[in-house]
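Design request, C-alpha cells follow.
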C-alpha cells in the first residue's frame, strides 16, 4: 500500500514500478489502476540536508492554499464548498539526482504527478525549479528552497491551468520523513462522511408550553466499535464483524491500507486519514505488501460490508 509519490514507465521500462490509483469505489474489493507508474526513490536516510544526496526521499507536509486573509475569511463565511480544498497533505518525492537535474513525483489528494527540474546548490542553501510534466489539470510548477543544515523544505506551487482548479496557488513547509510500516498505528477519531447526510426533525417544549420544531443534520459515521480492534495486528472474528456498522467496516478495512502508505483518491478517506500524523501517502498499490492477517481481515470485512447497517450521527455528539 505504499505511496503515490513516480515516473512514466515508458521512460523506465527496465525499472520495477508500482501502479498508481485511477479511482476508488467505496465498498468494493477491487481497485482500478491507470497506466501511470513511478520509480521508488533512492532514499537517503539523513533527515538533515547538507549535500545533494540528502535531498533524496520523501518530503511530507501541509499543502496550503496561498490566499489572503480576506479571501480566507470569505471562504469560511460562505457555504461555497471550498473549505475542504484549503488544506491537504502532499508528499514530494525526490527519486533521482543527476548532476543539476532532479526527477521525482508528487502525491496530493490522490493525484500522482511525475516531475523533473533543475537543482542549484549555493553556499548556504539549495534551490529547485520543478515542473510536473503530465500537464494535467492538477499539475503545476514548484519553486523550492532549503537551507543547508536544515530539515525543512519551503516553497510554493502554481497551477498550469488556474481557471480549472479550485485553488490555483499553494505554499508548503515539508519535513523529510522515512516511510516505515507499523502495524500498531492507531485510529482514534470518529469518521464522518460530510458528503452523505440526512436531515431529521426534532421537537422541544418552550417555556410557555408551545412545541417548537427544529431541523438538524446527521452524517454517515462510525461508532465506538471502530476503536476496539486493530485490523493490522489481530485477526478479526465473524462475530465482531457482524456487529459493526457499514462505516465502521469501511474505515477499519481502509486503515490497513493507510498503515502501508496507500494514497487515497477518495476525498473522505483522504481527509480522515490525513488527521493522523503517522499517515504518509506514498504508494498507489500496496496489495503485495499486505500481511496474512491483513488479507484475512479484508476478506472478512468485505463479506459483511455490503449488508451492514448504516449509522448516522451529528457532529460533536
Amino acid at each position: 500500500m505504499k505511496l503515490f509519490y513516480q515516473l512514466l514507465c515508458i521512460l523506465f521500462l527496465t525499472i520495477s514500478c508500482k501502479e498508481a490509483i485511477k479511482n476508488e469505489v467505496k465498498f468494493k474489493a477491487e481497485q482500478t489502476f491507470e497506466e501511470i507508474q513511478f520509480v521508488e526513490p533512492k532514499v537517503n536516510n539523513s533527515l538533515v540536508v547538507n549535500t545533494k544526496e540528502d535531498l533524496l526521499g520523501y518530503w511530507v507536509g501541509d499543502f496550503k492554499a496561498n490566499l489572503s486573509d480576506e479571501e480566507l475569511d470569505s471562504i469560511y463565511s460562505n457555504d461555497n464548498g471550498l473549505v475542504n480544498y484549503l488544506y491537504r497533505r502532499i508528499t514530494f518525492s525526490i527519486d533521482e539526482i543527476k548532476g543539476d537535474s532532479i526527477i521525482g513525483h508528487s502525491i496530493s489528494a490522490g493525484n500522482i504527478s511525475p516531475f523533473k527540474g533543475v537543482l542549484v546548490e549555493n553556499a548556504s542553501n539549495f534551490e529547485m525549479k520543478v515542473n510536473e510534466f503530465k500537464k494535467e489539470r492538477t499539475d503545476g510548477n514548484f519553486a523550492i528552497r532549503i537551507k543547508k543544515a536544515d530539515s525543512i523544505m519551503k516553497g510554493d506551487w502554481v497551477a498550469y491551468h488556474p481557471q480549472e482548479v479550485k485553488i490555483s496557488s499553494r505554499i508548503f513547509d515539508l519535513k523529510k520523513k522515512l516511510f516505515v510500516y507499523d502495524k500498531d498505528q492507531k485510529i482514534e477519531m470518529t469518521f464522518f462522511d460530510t458528503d452523505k447526510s440526512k436531515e431529521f426533525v426534532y421537537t422541544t417544549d418552550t417555556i410557555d408550553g408551545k412545541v417548537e420544531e427544529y431541523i438538524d443534520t446527521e452524517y454517515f459515521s462510525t461508532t465506538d466499535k471502530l476503536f476496539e480492534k486493530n485490523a493490522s495486528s489481530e485477526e478479526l472474528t465473524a462475530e465482531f464483524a457482524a456487529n459493526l456498522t457499514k462505516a465502521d467496516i469501511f474505515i477499519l478495512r481502509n486503515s490497513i491500507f493507510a498503515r502501508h502508505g496507500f494514497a487515497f483518491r477518495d476525498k473522505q478517506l483522504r481527509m480522515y486519514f490525513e488527521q493522523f500524523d503517522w499517515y504518509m501517502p506514498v504508494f498507489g498499490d500496496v496489495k503485495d505488501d499486505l500481511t496474512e492477517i491483513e488479507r484475512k481481515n479484508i476478506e472478512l470485512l468485505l463479506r459483511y460490508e455490503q449488508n451492514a447497517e448504516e449509522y448516522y450521527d451529528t457532529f460533536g455528539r
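Comment from the thread starter after seeing the answer: thanks! The chain has six helices and 15 strands.
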